[in-house]
Structure formats: C-alpha cells, structure tokens
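Pipeline run #58 for the internal structure catalog. This entry was flagged by the ingest filter as a single-chain record with no existing model, so it goes straight to prediction. Upstream metadata was stripped on purpose; only the residue string is passed forward. Reviewer on rotation: M.T. Logging verbosity set to normal.
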Amino acid sequence: GRVSAVVWADFEKDGFPELVVMPEWGSPRLWRNRQGKLTPNEGAFAAANALSGLWSSLAVGDFNGDGLLDLAGGNIGQNSGGLFRPEEGPHRLWWKAEPLRVRLIETHIAQGEEWPLAWWNHLEESAPGRISRARSYSEYAERNVEELFGDLKSQGYELLEMREFRSGVFWQQADGSFQFQPLPAMAQSGRMVSLLAGDLNGDGISDLVASLELPSMAPWTGRKERGHLLTMLGSKDKNLEVFLPNVSGLDVGAGSPRNLLWGDFDGDGSEELAVGLEEGLPLIFHRSAH
C-alpha cells in the first residue's frame, strides 16, 4: 500500500531512532536502527496481517506512563454505514492499471463468498463490459464476484485487503513488540487524518489530539458534515478518555481540521496548538489552566 505516515523514535533507548511506517492498504512496519543501519523487525507488531488497514496518521508518546514509548495510529474508523464488515472477512480492493485509467472493484466477504460492494450501474463505470454476465439488478445481486467477473487475477488485477478499520494505540511491551488496542468508540466516528501527542493535563503521561474527517458514503458523494477535533487523555490503566470539542474547547467552527502542530507562537514560554484547516486560515488554541 501507499505510505501515509512515518515517524522516527528511539524505542530501544540506545541513542539510535527506529523508523515506523504506516501505509494505506497495509500493516504497520518497524525498522530497527543499528548504528545507522536499518533492518526490518518483522515481529514488532503481533498478528501484523490482521492489522492491515487504511492507516492515515501516526504519533509517538508514553500514553500509560510506564516509561516505554507507544504508538498511536489513525485509521478509517467504523462510521461507514455498514460498508465495512471486518467480522465477516477482509474488505478487498481489486485494481488494474491501464494506459488511461485505473480500474477498481471493491468487494467484501459474506457467508463465505466474495461479493461486489458497488451498485450495478456504478460498477459499470469502473469496469465497463465486465458485468455482461448479469442482465438485471436482481441477477446482479444474486451473483458473487467470480460469477460476475471470472478470475480477476488472470485478467491482470492486483489485490489489496483491509482487515482492521479502527484507530488505536500500539502499546510497547517489555520485549520491544507492540500490542494493538482500539481507541474508544467515540474516536471511531471518522477517518483520523492527523494525530499529535503531548501532555495536555500536566500529569506526566502523554495525551493525544486527533483530527477526524467524517467519511463520505461513496466516492461519488460529498462529505456528510464537517470534521472535528478530539482530545484523548492517557492513563496508567491504558483506557484513554475521549473528549469532544464542547468539553475540550477545541472547536474549529465551520472549518474542517487537518494538520496539527505544537509551537510557542506568542513567545510566552508555553506551547500553543496550531490547527490547519482545509478551508480558511489556521487556528491557534492557547492552553487553559481550567
């Protein structure tokens, strides 16, 4: 998959930072740093194949105060109107590059078989001439992918799979591996396009600020409504507490938040939060003592 986020951090505390890569349509990967030489650590993430997702953001911090650096990963979330059904099987994307276009066929597993996700007329736009085996909407609905298209691999299509949709924290273990834990349901309401770590409440434990984008139901539809910012407080028991903008004060108004950055923008010795908007000028939020 395409790389969407990278971060350097000294997870092994040897003075040489490791490299972590988050991809779209793939699993997180870590490269160990041996005095400037990078080598892949294939065992860094438990059940790596099960973590294949549409990862979009990444942050590093000690989110439970145990002295080990953890990872937070932003994913597409679970607010898809039932489009993604990971409990039944992977969400699949068959793709084929042609001279003037890329053909895409999205599918899912249900009742042990692979079925197309797109409506008949919409799929016709992506793969014209490939659905002649179905002569009506009802016939199309009753046929699985193989019955509709035949063997896609033999036709030159490549396969990508997504098995994990939730954003979450990868807790570093004593042996240096990482264990995935999904964030609370409130943090799964959209695609987590940006993540930023920092100690928001001064307790010495890293917290998170996340920028969420509510997904459209399909590529041909617009956004359902604007995105928003979430704050999540780290905890020794690993149960992060999530706060909406009406509680945290991080209300961006009519804008759609994107990139996040800490910085002392007014020179008072205290860092402020800068929020880049998809529409309009960036916003600056000052810390409050309350």
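catalog note: The first helix runs from residue 120 to 126.
catalog note: Residues 41 and 66 are 22 Å apart (CA to CA).
status: ready for reviewer M.T.
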